[in-house]
Structures are given as structure tokens and as C-alpha cells.
Prior knowledge:
By secondary structure, the protein is of the alpha/beta class. It contains 17 helices and 13 strands. An eleven-stranded mixed beta sheet has the order 1-3-2-6-8-7-12-13-11-9-10, sandwiched between helices. Strands 4-5 form a two-stranded antiparallel ribbon. Helix 11 (340-350) packs across helix 15 (416-439).
Amino acid sequence: MSPTRREALAQLSALLAIPLVGWPRRADDPLAGTIAQFQAGRLHGDFSAVEATREALRRCRAWNGTLRAVDQLTDTALAEARASDARAKRGALLGALDGVPLFAKSIYDMKGLPTTASSAEWARLFPLPATRDALEVQRLRAAGAVLLGKTAADDFAYRGNGTSSLTGQVRNPHDPAGLRTPGGSSAGSAVVVACGMAFAALGTDDGGSNRIPAQFTGVVGMKPSFGLVPRTGVIPTWPYLDTHGPLARTVADAALMLDAIAGPDASDGIADRTRYTRGALGALRDDALQGARLGLVEMHVPRTQMSAECLAVFDRAIADCTRAGAIVDTFATPVHRANVRDLFAADAIAHGRVAPNHNAPAPTANALLRYFRRHGADAERKVHTGLAAFRAFYDVLPVGWEAMKALIAQPYEADAASQSFARSRESVVAQLAAAFRAQQLDAMVYPTMPFGAPAATDPWPDVRTALGYGNWLGLPEVSVPAGYGANGMPAGNLSFVGLPGSDARLLALAHAYEQHSHRFVAPPTPA
């Protein structure tokens, strides 16, 4: 017998470990709403995890010929959904993500699937399925999530266009002509989320790879604090910049996914060692902007280069924050996108260190060796086998094997140029934190990017963004849809950016903005 609405709401509140005001709206389509609405529907007997998973897989197969967003689908998703429904019948769900269809990016290991990195050459060189899950995938499975498979990206997560040599150009679902980029590198993750093929997806971000596709496809994208999410079992990029996080249609869903994957693990040598308490990111309130102090960084708003439409969308987003009770003041930050590199260099000189280098070759080389070591013997041989394909993108690596062999043996934690970068980061973030305290700020706000999606074959506008600024400093950032243009394309996202460790506060602020603005619009159903 189905529980009453009151009983189901009590169960749901306990399950999500967050207060729920009222009954979540019933979604006839189990994939159309939020994770909370999905779980409410399950508890009330409206649909099951199996039904939602079947529909998600149907959409993936029906739409991927147009979207090219899916790298691979698993053959275990329905079994995982059945196991979740069995737990639901026993009243023993593992948590908010139990039975929820999710994806991971193509550079993640997922047991039973090859790790293609969205590269045709890498897929040819390493065709065997992974025997272990990446740590984040393990954590999602432990939370009961249904893993549908992996999403397409730029080769090796290197560029921001969504162009894969393996699966082709990922399409922006808001563009019926199929010409505009969805952004990247986490292109497929953003697209499957926008189109309701899954509730959320894992992505990575070294210089905007979650936030760019979030803006271009009109979804929520998050770059957490550097080190909050360990990166074990994922093909490496730049270890001192790389940050993993969620893409979702709502801030609440992004928070639930991040909560499941966050927390220390010794396998990542430079991840945050701070103890993490599950549920710490779930304190979302609709009134969180009331009395919040937001610093508007005009340096990061290139008004003279923005289109009238993009600028209007951004200014309306700031007005939405004010109407929701926020105090928005101009923030003349001493650390901004135009001077951050100089500040890093000056700090190193002042302390007698070598020049800081965020993409020194040794850490990436060593991280690649560690990645292959998780898969048993012959790790060094595998690095050798894949070097030419990998180096075609990560071209700071040496061409010759002997030079590469010397690099891979150096622990990335001990690289002098990278250590210098990390120490400069601490010093420069301290300057930013002092300015935050002086102005009593909760967060900075500025456009995620100052322009909408160009055609996939066109060069991007020559307009500087603050994307790399956040990676250099390791700052958490939540990018939330802010509106659409007359052509129906997303015209901008608003970024909430804070000091390292302020992820929970940023999610709360972004959620409140989202609830007051309601700017997400689902794209048309793919042909």
C-alpha cells in the first residue's frame, strides 16, 4: 500500500537530510523534475527506478544520433535500478541518490567499459574495459546511484568546444540548426542533463570545462574548491588545476551529487585532507540571499565587449539577487583575472622560490603513471604506448621516451615549480580573503562568460573571461542559468564565487537565486 502524502514527505525529508517545505510537485515524466521530486514520486508509487532508467536509456539511444553526447552506455543500469527498487520496497534506500540515473565523463574509469577519453586513437590503443571504477564512480555506486554510462567530451578533456575525434562534435540542444557549440570539455555531461537523459553528470574543470558548457547549454555547473573531490581513476590533466564536480539542471541536484563524491582520500596526493561530513552541502534555503553580501567584480564584467542581450541578462540577474534580499556592492578586489599571474610570480620571487608553473610537465607525467598503476602491471609500458596520443594534446610533455621516463618517476607532490605554484596560491588567496573580510562578503558575482555559444567551427570572441582565475586560486564557483536570447539560446549564467571551503555557502546562495529567478528552460526535444 502506498504511503500517504504526509508519510511520504516525512520519509523523503529523512532521506534527503534537508528540510522540505510542502510536497514536491509531481512530475508525470520521472526524469523531468528534480531528484527530490523523483524520489517523492517513487515513495508515492508514481513510478520506479526501473521505469526511469528505461526511459533514460531510450532517450539516449533515440537522441544520441543527433546530439552525439554519449560516449558509451553500460549494460548494468537496469540491474542497478532493480536493486534500488528492491531497497525502496524494504524501506532501506541508501540515500538521496539511490536509484537516480547519472552519467560520468569519458575520462572516468567505469568498470566494464573501456576508458576512451573521447579519443579515437586512445580507444584503439586501450580497447579493454576498465576493471575498476574511478573513486567518484565508486562513491556514487555506494550511494545507490544508477550509472547509465559515460558522456562524450573533447579529446582528453583538453579543449572547450565539445569536439571528440571518437564520437564527433557534440551538438548544442538549444540550436535547431545544429551549428553552435555546447562548450566543453564536459560537453556531453551538460547536454545529457539539459535534455533530461539523466539528472546529473560528472565533469572536470581545469580552466572552465564544467562552467563553459553549463553556460552554453543553460544548466548548473560547479567547480568545487580545489581538492574537495579526489581525482583517482580519471585520466589526468593538470594536477594542480584539475577540479571535478557536477553538472545538473538545479543547484539542489548538483549539491546532492557533490555531497556524494566529496571528501578526502589518500590516493590523491594533493587532495584536501580535511575531514568531510556527508550532508554538509545540503543546507539549501530559498531565503539564503536575504541579507547576504555579494561583491560585484566589475573587472570581470567586460561591458563594452558584451552584446546588449548578454549584458541585459546579467544586469537582470543582479537585480534578481537584490530583490531576493541580497546586498550587492561593487568589489574592487585586489586579486582579479588581469593580475593573478603577476601576483603568483611576485610571491615566488619575494620568497626566493622557483617560478611557479601551473602546468609543469612532471606532475602530469607522474599522474599518468599512477593512473595506469591502478590497472595492474605494465603501467610504464602503457604510458609509453599512449604517450604520442596523449602528448598531441598535453604538449608540454617530452617527445622522447627517455626524457618522459625520467619525468614519470618524480612524485607530483614534490615538483618544485608546482610546489611554488601551490604556495603562491596560498599567499594570493590570503590577500583575497583579507579583502573579503574587509567588505564582509559572502561571495563574488560576475558572468560565468560574457558571451553566448558561437558556432562550433568559429573562433571564440576575443573577450577575456575569469574562468582560469578561479582555477589558479582554487576557488569554488557555482554557475546558474540567467536567461535566454531572442534566438532561444542561453545568453548567460551568473557565477557565485567564494573562498576555498565555502562550497556549502555558495550552493545555498545559488539555490536561492535559482528559486527567485527560475531561468532554466529545457531545450526542444531532439529530432
